Amino acid sequence: MNPDKASLQMATQPADLAFAARAQPESRGNAAVEAALNRRYDAGFITDIESESLPPGLSEDIVCAISERKGEPEWMTQWRLKAYRHWLTMKSPQWAKLRISPIDFQAISYFSRPKKQPKSLAEVDPKLLETYDKLGVPLHERAKLAGVAVDAVFDSVSVGTTFQKELAAVGVIFSSMSEAIRTHPELVQKYLGSVVPQGDNYFAALNSAVFSDGSFVFIPKGVRCPMELSTYFRINAGHTGQFERTLIIAEEGASVSYLEGCTAPMRDENQLHAAVVELVALDDASIKYSTVQNWYPGDENGVGGIYNFVTKRGDCRGPRSRIVWTQVETGSAITWKYPSVVLRGDDSVGEFHSVALTHHRQQADTGTKMIHLGKNTKSKIVSKGISAGRGQNTYRGLVKVEKGASGARNHTQCDSLLIGKQCGAHTFPYIEVKNPGAIVEHEATTSKISDDQLFYCRSRGIGAEDAVSMIVDGFCKQVFRELPMEFAVEAKKLLEVSLEGAIG
Amino acid sequence: MEAALLDELGGADTPERAESWRYSRNALRALAQLPFGVADPDAALAPEVCAQFAWPQTQGRRLVFINGRLSGAHSDLRDEGIVVADDAATIRIVDAARPLHLVHIGVPGAAATRWQTALRLQVEAAQASLIEQHIGASGAELFAVFDLRVEIAAQAALDWIALSELSEQASLLRRVELKLAAQSQVRRSDALFGGRMQRLELGVELAGAQARLESRGMFVLRGREHAEVRLDIRHQARDCACDVLWRGVADQRARGIFHGGITVEPGADGSDARLSSKNVLLSALAEIDTQPVLEIHADEVQAAHGATVGQIDERALFYLRSRGIPLEQARRMLVAAFCAQALGAIGDGGLRERIDALAQARLPSPDAAQ
After folding, report:
1. Does position A4 have pLDDT exceeding 60, yes or no?
2. Which chain A residues are Cβ-neighbours of B303 within 8 angstroms?
3. Which of A287, A290, A277, A365 is nearest to A326 (CA)?
4. Which of A281, A391, B19, B353 could form a disulfide linkage to A321, CB 3.0–4.6 angstroms apart?
5. Residue B243 covered by a domain
6. A172 to each of A162, A182, A213, how far by Cα in Å?
7. CA-CA distance, B67 to A247, in Å (whole number)?
């Protein structure tokens, strides 16, 4: 094709539609935006699989029933009951900048699992494998090619964990939480709840009482985990909630990179996902935790979608330890989470890199907490918020420097990009400093994609949609760089799908 | 009495108001436990207190309130551009070339006392200026609550300097509501000194198109002083601008809190909002909490904020020492220069020097350190 023709073709792309639409003051860009904003949610299918669920409702009996189904020891049942009793005394928090329709905790079924319980991966229901295949998660022979160990959680239970033997050979324990409670009770007992106690907050208490499954990772002293570990969470059954619990422990000098992905079918109801993730890094250990969150966001009118209320916290317990959170949040009707780091050990490092995208009527209230307790502790926060449609995006963070944290250093950068007239971008950073030797810096900017930027791209023959995608990609680059390669590709793709045609 | 005071002031009514007292609730609670009597509006002023406000340059345009009530004996108003109405509840600046000097003095009684008052100010002059001064004399505990509503007419401009000098026993809660009509401008410079507990709530509505607010301010705290500044700036119309620059210093066991909230409401396109909050901690027992908040509901917006808490630049310190200036003196110079960044907007040279001197006097002296 001759180059002139190519550029001519590009110019007749939706870019021109958008340009024409912008020229009319009443509907500036709206036509093009409306037309293309109805994005598809690829992971919205339902797997037709026989499942058994506990009846809806929450009581001490239900808590005991969950514990019993999972064949847990007595101490675990008691631990859950303690959390449940504490939860009863708590109230749902109101401080977030979120509109949440009331949650009826008695209407949720707290436990649901596929009927056929496989003994090994070879016995996993083909339908289930097909589900993960469709989602692009390597569970079976494909796993060998991908070189990533996966723990797949389907509704309330783990359906399979790959590469366990290979990992065990170097001493790494990677299993579902239920399995870990059976096989390594001493480790679970020692660390579970040591970072996020049962009564930490309303949703953490609820999770502690009813948590079903999740991953357990233990990297022994001096071991560098030979492959990426990952968990894939899938909600399938209706009228259920998912309450998984993940615990990662890196002993002295150990290091691990862990990835997490999640999807759910399209349903008209709001489903609750209240997870707890605890990370423990001992002396010189390093944990990298990456999330690509793509729960069903609800439709363009805000019907349905997942309520993603998650407590994630890492504890840099030993000197020179390091915890890095990276998140790309594109799904969920409501995202409400603050992956945090307690910098207890001297010279420990905490990092938080986040891209949060809200579209249609999605809401996100997310950020981080960096609690500096040890000397010369360092933290870095990079948060990129993108709001489109009627999306509301809030960064909320706390940087706290306690008296003993001399030489503490924090830098926070927090940028928002607005696409459209009806969206919102908000920034609520809390900075609390009690040590005169600390240096804390916070910077934030909010802007929209400017017409100048778009015009420049168009003058170079780039369609408006590609231009928006390029600008957004550049805006997020700093965060994507932190993601493992496979996830970076997926994250970029997700953003592109989400923002097709969203020209302000 | 104490529960009622806590509820009334501490905002138990909504989660937002309760959250706004997050850092000062304990200070307020401690205050609420004192058995307050009613302050005497006829209390006599000590000569040294009179000297604090009897400036020659504001003669003839001075209104003095003692414990919340206008004092005829100390006020001195001969300017026709200033109208006092509604039994001294409303003041109008209709035409003024020179500043109105508003003085609020808290005079303690024998035991703990409190007073509360409200005032309305209407600015219609094209180029008005106002000096708002709060003095909390030393003596027994004194707690004042001062509500001020200021309306700026279209195309009017106000140059406003607000200064508070409080003793260690004096507490002051100021709630200022400021509303700007189209194309009006306010430039406010604040200096907060001292106080057992002082809190400034400055709510600003940029209600008319092209209204503009410039807010400069500083607090310099020591001892066990506790000061909180809360800005709530709302862009409600097109093409409004706000520019906020605050500096904070806390020494000894003091606690300084800065909250800079800027909201751009739907439809307030063309907004330009800037905020900078920089703070220095001088002691291991002091604390600074800062919170720059942006809420944006429109898309044609330029907004940026920055906040830092830290120490004096080591390189600047080294430079001064290499020029033969002793460490403590160099440190003092740098902190003074840091504060002075917030004073730039004060046009009245005499007043700027006065505030500068007040700030300097509160910094650790080189003699004490040696």
Report:
1. no
2. 445-447
3. A290
4. A281
5. yes
6. 13, 16, 19
7. 60
Instruction: Quote the pLDDT of residue B367.
Output: 56
Determine the Cα–Cα distance for residues A307 and A297; give it in Å rounded to an integer. Answer: 9
CA–CA distance, B360 with B329 (Å, rounded to integer): 12
Give the pLDDT confidence score for residue A233 in this predicted structure. Answer: 81
**DSSP characters for A318-353?**
STT-EEEEEEEE---SEEEE--EEEE-STT-EEEEE
Number of domains present in the structure of chain B: 1
Torsional sign, CA A443, A446, A450, A456: positive
Q: Which residue has the tokens 């808290």?
A: B106
* CA torsion through residues B105, B106, B108, B113, sign: positive
CA A478 to chain centre: 18
CA distance A386 to A417: 5
Single-letter amino acid code for the residue at B15: P
Q: Which two tokens stand for residue A345?
A: 């050990």
Taking the C-alpha atoms of residue A500 and residue A43, their distance in angstroms, rounded to an integer, is 17
Distance from C-alpha of A328 to C-alpha of A291, rounded to nearest angstrom? 6
Q: Output the CA torsion sign for A23, A24, A30, A31.
A: negative
d(CA B88, CA B132): 16
Q: Is B315 exposed, middle or buried (0-12, 13-18, 19+ CB in 10 A)?
A: exposed
Binding-face residues of A in 83-122 toward B, CB within 8 A: 94-95
Residue linked to tokens 């002075």: B340
- Average pLDDT (A377-394) is 93
Q: What is the C-alpha separation between B358 and B57, in angstroms, rounded?
A: 19
- Please give the model's pTM, rounded to 2 decimal places: 0.87
Side-chain-facing half-sphere of B299: CA atoms under 13 Å: 22
Residue A183: φ, ψ to 5°: -90, -30
Domain coverage including residue B164? 2-312
Q: Which residues contact residue B337 at a Cβ distance below 8 angstroms, ignoring those fewer than 6 apart?
A: none
Which residues in B have their CB inside 8 Å of a CB on A? 15, 19, 266, 279, 281-284, 286-311
Give the contacts of B347 (CB within 8 A, at least 6 positions apart): B159
Q: Contact B199/B227 with Cβ under 8 angstroms?
A: yes
A contact test, residue of B282, B295, B334 with most A CBs within 10 A: B295
8 A C-beta contact, residue B93 and residue B100: yes
State the helix-helix crossing angle for A30-37 and A14-23, rounded to 10 degrees: 140
Give the pLDDT of residue A148: 62
DSSP helix/strand/coil, B153: coil
How confident is the model at residue B270, as a pLDDT? 92
Which one of A213-217, A332-336, B31-35, B253-257 scores highest in mean pLDDT? B253-257
Share of chain B above pLDDT 70, in %: 97
Nearest Cβ partner for A437 among B297, B298, B311: B311
What residue ranges in A135-254 does DSSP mark as E strands?
Answer: 148-154, 157-161, 173-176, 215-219, 228-234, 245-250
Task: Say if the Cβ atoms of B15 and A94 lie within 8 Å.
Answer: yes
Three-class SS of residue A463? coil
Contacts 24+ apart (CB under 8 A), A236-239: A236/A46, A236/A47, A236/A49, A236/A51, A236/A131, A236/A154, A236/A155, A236/A264, A236/A265, A237/A51, A237/A53, A237/A109, A237/A112, A237/A155, A238/A267, A238/A269, A238/A271, A239/A56, A239/A107, A239/A108, A239/A109, A239/A269, A239/A271
Phi, psi of A387 (to 5 degrees): -120, 130
Rounded Cα distance between A328 and A486, Å, is 13
Report if residue B330 sits inside a domain.
Answer: no
Nearest chain A CA: its distance from B223 CA (Å): 15
Asked if residue A249 lies in contact with residue A191, where contact means CB atoms within 8 angstroms, the answer is yes
